[in-house]
Specification:
- The chain is of the alpha+beta class and 173 residues long.
- The chain has a single domain, classed as Cytidine Deaminase, domain 2, CATH 3.40.140.
- The chain is 25% helix and 31% strand.
- The chain has helices at residues 10-17, 42-56, 93-99, 127-140, and strands at 4-5, 35-38, 61-69, 72-80, 107-111, 115-116, 120-121, 144-149, 154-161, 164-167, 171-172.
- The strands form two sheets. Strands 1, 2, 3, 4, 5, 8, 9, 10 and 11 form a nine-stranded mixed sheet that branches. It has a two-stranded antiparallel ribbon with strand order 6-7.
- The longest helix has 15 residues, at 42-56.
- The chain is globular.
- Residues 1-29 and 85-89 have low confidence and may be disordered.
Length: 173
């Protein structure tokens, strides 16, 4: 089902969390989620975010509401962020890090509308994306949910947290 990729080992996670090996890391879960679900208004909000991005030909960013419950990640809402003081992609990383935090928000979603060779979408998180994901985790100290919309129907999502990353297969939203 899900392809798992461990980015950070347990001892590194303990060090990052500031705990000793004898302490419990609250965000460390025994269950690894295997399913990703878009519920409520999340689907329509993601479609709207993609459409705005495609029409303007610029990246768009939003906050994700949701939860990680046992073996399932549930996305229940999206808050599109307005462009303001930002980089060439349209949204400031600082704005998304500050706005998209707990308890209301569990991470971020962004679009990749640029095409590789003018034909194929960039369907993977970039190095810069991964940097933002790590900054989010360091800022909020809990598992974050991150998604990348790379077409009008396709998404790739990941959990980033103290023990590494869980990458979910590409899917439709």
């Amino acid at each position: 089902m899900a392809r798992l990729r461990w980015v950070v080992g347990l001892s590194a996670a303990i060090a990052l969390a500031g705990a000793s090996p004898n302490n419990t890391i609250p965000a460390f879960r025994n269950n690894i989620p295997r399913a990703f679900r878009f519920e409520g208004t999340a689907r329509s909000e993601l479609h709207r975010l993609w459409q705005e991005s495609a029409n303007s030909k610029t990246e768009r960013v939003g906050c994700l509401a949701g939860s990680i419950e046992s073996d399932t990640v549930r996305i229940t809402g999206v808050l599109a962020l307005e462009s303001g003081r930002s980089d060439s992609l349209g949204i400031s990383a600082a704005a998304s890090l500050e706005t998209c935090g707990p308890p209301d928000w569990k991470g971020t979603v962004h679009t990749h509308v640029a095409l590789r060779d003018g034909r194929l979408p960039y369907s993977l998180f970039s190095g810069a994306d991964r940097g933002i994901m790590m900054l989010w985790w360091r800022r909020w100290r809990e598992d974050g949910i991150f998604c990348l919309l790379y077409s009008a129907q396709e998404v790739i999502c990941e959990i980033e947290g103290p023990r590494g990353a869980v990458l979910f297969p590409r899917s439709r939203y």
